[in-house]
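[job 4471] stage=fold_predict status=RUNNING
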Amino acid sequence: GGGHGGGHGGGHGGGRGTNTPTNNTDAADAEQQAAERNLKRKCIDFHNPAVIDLTNRLYRKTCRSAYMRFSADFLQPHSSYLRLMGMPLSAVAAPNVSQSYLTHLAHVTRAKNSTPVMCLSWTPGGRRLLTGNQEGEFTLWDGITFGFELIMSAHDASFRCMAWSHNRNYLLTSDAGGNIKYWSPSIAPVKELDSHNAQPIHSLSFAPGDTKFVSCGDDATVRVFDWATISEERVLEGHGWDVKCVQWHPRSSLICSGSKDNLVKLWDPRAGSTLSTLYGHKNTVTKVAWNDNGNWLLTASRDQLIKVYDIRAMKELCSLKGHNKEVTSIAWHPLYESVFASGGMDGTLLFWNISPKGSDDPVARVPFAHDMAIWDLAWHPCGHMLATASNDRQTKFWARNRLGSSSGMPDEDKESSSEILHDEMELGNHVGIVIGKRGATIISMQRATGTKMHVDQVRRVLQIEGTVKQIETVKKRVGALLDRVSNDSRDGIHFNN
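[job 4471] inference complete, writing structure tokens
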């Protein structure tokens, strides 16, 4: 990713030592070893690529000839070119859009006693990631090493939305109890107000000048507030059901909202009237997003479609079908105007490019990015990383692929080995571990590998049904799981002696 500047920080540390601790091994030594084992963690350090960009800017941009200006190092699909990889920003003049399809899973985070993650956002410099969960707690993660930093209680009800002001001086958050809070960049509470008749407030958005902000909720209204006086200025009524999303235009006095009544409405916040209504969707509109160019409006819905409207002509540019379940989140890329990512109810993550050279099909897909719905997506301000928040209680970081890797690309050898086979695998005493709590482990493994799996608890075997490649993957994963469990229990016995 942008980079894998420092490479992958040495992976996850060496394997366990072959010499098992004896009785006289000090418990402190064992703890020290465990700490060292956990120290070597992956990191995605963007300082190296940023330095490459700066040097390129100094030596290349001043040159008049187009040849020199765009002769940035052409990267070959080989890992030795990793150190030459710049940030996405360096290629904006001659964009290589494929840099923004982030299909490499960099890290998975999950806080202790975690609950579903409802929303997230990067702090202004992109150094940390802020997530809000169903218990109303903030969690702060480091954006480079992905380490856990802080957890604090923020709301009494479940988080619903976070929005930074354009000048990055304030953060607004809302919850399922109709409460809106102001926070400073150091995550200190400033003020709060109650609105929307104590109904959930699903979305917040700042006006271009940060003097006003808009909210929408389950009371079927869109409300405009004055930021400084914390007073409600307008109530925009017109939707027939819960309003699920709202966003202020990046430069104009124009608000867009999407509702459970399948409508997308454009409002004039000054007059408080509806300017136009878009009737494109056949189910709840879950998200709306303005492109930074101010002309394109992206809408996502539970009818599995994503639509792009050109607001200048008030016409639909394209209707994109790639999700097989409801579309739950969308986010435009911060640098490349034609690229955006979308997340679905089934945990699928898709990347799209809608330029003339783009297509109506997703350009890259991560089929089982999460086990459950992806509630929110947030691009790192530099565009080299994407964070996803999901109902499966995990926050995942996605980075640019290693050069030469093909993950996210469609499989080419599908036809050759599509024959379905049956196989079995001995489990011994670890039947319960493979099944997991309420079947969670086996369900997520089936989804990730595309196989059918069943545990025969009497014979203590795992029955697998799938292609040769899929069965191989399952055996590898289950084998790794069993190794880990038996290693842990064996180490535990030695340490307790």
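[job 4471] summary: The chain has a mean pLDDT of 81.
[job 4471] exit 0
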